[in-house]
Amino acid sequence: MPVDRLLPTPESEDLLALVTEIARDELKPRASADEEAENFPRDLFTLMGKSGLLGLPYPERWGGGEQPYEVYLQALEEIAAAWMSVGVGLSVHTMSCYALANYGTEEQQDRWLPDMLGGSLLGAYALSETHAGSDAAALSTRARLEGDEYLVNGTKAWITHAGVADFYTTMVRTSDDGGHGISCLLVDSSTPGLSAAPRERKMGLTGSPTAQMLFENARVPADRLIGGEGSGLKIALSSLSSGRLGIAACAVGLAQAALDEAVEYAKGRTQFGRPIADFQGLEFLLADMAATVESARATYLDAARRRDRGLDFQRQSSVAKLVATDGAMKVTTDAVQVLGGAGYTRDFPVERYMREAKVPQIFEGTNQIQRMLIARSLKNA
After folding, report:
1. Residues 6+ apart with CB under 8 A from 239
2. Which of 217, 233, 249 is where one domain is finished?
3. How distant, in Å, are the alpha carbons of 153, 170, 181, 229, 374 from that of 175?
4. Fewer Cβ atoms within 10 A, N terminus or C terminus of the chain?
5. What's the rounded Cα separation, in Å, for the pair 94 and 238?
6. Cα pseudo-dihedral 269, 275, 276, 281, rounded to 10
7. Is residue 3 part of a domain?
8. 283 has catalytic annotation
9. Within 10 Å of residue 263's Cβ, how many Cβ atoms?
């Protein structure tokens, strides 16, 4: 069923109509088969780029849509509802552009952002390492300046779009000064010494490649340093605050898709001479699912509107990520229950939705980390 949205402008209503059409006609028909075959749909990212969807929250000057986050996230939700791997990929690409768009020099922005926002280049975000996940300041991938190049060595882990991205927004260690010794490099995929390990064999989001990225004496031009040496951790944490809202929107889209599937099945499935949707046990389950979806949507929209007004939104971002991803896990699990035995088969997409709902509770900061951040903000208020 279409979501009843309150959008700020007629322009944004037209944009969401376009997004809904692309999601319905181009994404959803391919999702199940491509996920099962573990096919990465690069052509769809090119299509979204040509349609203006890869740079929605960024300035028109570089080919962006200059849309408020309130609108961008609702567009992202529609895409994730049709195909979660594509929604997550769009969120990751948007976050990968964040460092350059917000901390790059004007010359760097003019040089690279048009292709990044226009669909010619696909991005990846390389922060995590095997021993530096939640503790981002512990990363050890090292970059040493030699003349006009950085010599980079180390391994990045759990990188979405590993091996298929055209650029990697990469956090590296340029000094031993703890969190103050981290810098940000915009690394081209063709960089000598950069390679992708074999893809991880994942529970869900199998259409989206995830792997380690290996830096072995990789030489990165010094003009690809973003924000100056030592500013990488600040850039990374700022990026994640916005990126968490993207994951929250994706989780809501996934939960909405599961709810829609459950409602449709419950209306058509009969037992004891009437639709199972008429039984109070199912009615209450569906009602709780709908309440969870709408509540989660409200949390990410509240955070987005604060961001759009220039207000602090860090706590609200953590709340939205926590509520939306925990809610998606519950709603997709309940959707499988509504469909019963059919829900446990691959003849219906809810089993895939349930598998896909798990990882949003983990990436962009685990939900345990979100609880810690929320509690810390309360204590420091």
Report:
1. 95, 98, 99, 125, 169
2. 233
3. 13, 15, 4, 9, 30
4. C
5. 13
6. 160
7. no
8. no
9. 18
| Location of structure tokens 């049709």 | 82
Tell me the pLDDT tens digit for each residue of 84-131.
999 999 999 999 999 999 999 999 999 999 999 998 999 999 999 999
For residue 1, name the pLDDT band (cuts at 50, 70, 90).
confident
Same domain, 243 and 225: no
Q: Quote the number of domains for the chain.
A: 3
Q: What gap in Å lies between CA 210 and CA 165, rounded to an integer?
A: 11
In the DSSP assignment, the letter for residue 208 is S
Longest dimension (CA), the chain: 79
Q: Do 71 and 177 have their domain in common?
A: no
Whether residues 193 and 286 fall in one domain: no
**Looking at residues 157-185, what average pLDDT do you find?**
97
Query: Which among 205, 233, 261 is the end of a domain?
Result: 233
Structure tokens at 170: 């990469």
Same domain flag for 263 and 354: yes
In a domain, 4, yes or no: no
Instruction: Please give the angle made by the CA atoms of 24, 43 and 48, to the nearest 5 degrees.
Output: 55
Q: Assess contact for 159 and 128: CB atoms under 8 A.
A: yes
What residues make up the domain containing 102? Answer: 10-118
Q: Which entry of 129, 261, 356, 364 is annotated as an active-site residue?
A: 364
Domain check: are 71 and 129 in the same one? no
Tell me the C-alpha to C-alpha distance, in Å, between residue 343 and each of 22, 30, 58, 280, 338: 27, 19, 40, 20, 7
* CATH number of the domain to which 248 belongs: 1.20.140.10
pLDDT digits (tens, 9 = 90+) for 215-228: 999 999 999 999 99
Tokens of 302: 């509240």
* CB neighbourhood size of 291 (10 A): 12
Token pair in block for residue 193 = 């010494």
Residue with tokens 């959008």: 7
How far is it, in rounded angstroms, from Cα 288 to Cα 295?
A: 10
